[in-house]
Specification:
This protein is mainly alpha-helical. It has one domain. It contains 2 helices and no strands. It is elongated and about 65 Å long. The two termini are 15 Å apart.
């Protein structure tokens, strides 16, 4: 139970750090918006090609980095969910016995 508590604290701090990076990337370009929970594939680049970085290279590079950061946030969030479930099961075992 102590290990899961420490893991929850570490995952919370890392979640706050990752969210701070996502907010930073949102502030670098106004096309990103304010959402921290969705990937940015729906934000169009300037020009015809949205997949490659030939038309709007800086924005596409930032969008790729931001999408990786959002993916890392989702992994961190779900890992924290599993650790929290383990913590709750240990807590219930401790209370009920």
């Amino acid at each position: 139970m102590i290990i899961s508590t420490l893991l929850l604290i570490i995952l919370y701090i890392s979640h706050k750090y990752i969210v701070a990076w996502i907010i930073y990337y949102n502030n670098t370009d106004k096309r990103f918006g304010n959402s921290i929970w969705r990937w940015t594939y729906d934000y169009k680049v300037l020009g015809k090609r949205d997949v490659s970085d030939l038309d709007d290279k800086p924005f596409v590079r930032k969008r790729r980095i931001r999408n990786r950061t959002v993916s890392l946030m989702y992994c961190n969030f779900f890992l924290a969910f599993f650790v929290f479930m383990s913590f709750m099961s240990h807590l219930l075992i401790l209370i009920l016995t």
